[in-house]
Amino acid sequence: xxxxxxxxxxxxxxxxxxxxxxxxxxxxxxxxxxxxxxxxxxxxxxxxxxxxxxxxxxxxxxxxxxxxxxxxxxxxxxxxxxxxxx
Length: 86
Fold this sequence. Notes:
Elements: H1 12-23, H2 30-65, H3 74-85
């Protein structure tokens, strides 16, 4: 697999964190650190893709039907209701 250079801007705090990882010897370079951290992020988001697709589908069904396609009861409903208040 080939590689591609992608310029990226980081805020000071994040740049310092990357530098610290290199200085501590966790990574040999900033590029290595960023590659590894990006891979971890992509993997984590990849695990959430089925959930994101399902939620999108539920919103689509709600738009089409004009009503909520799934009714939640009990503790889950209470949790979601409380979350909306924040």
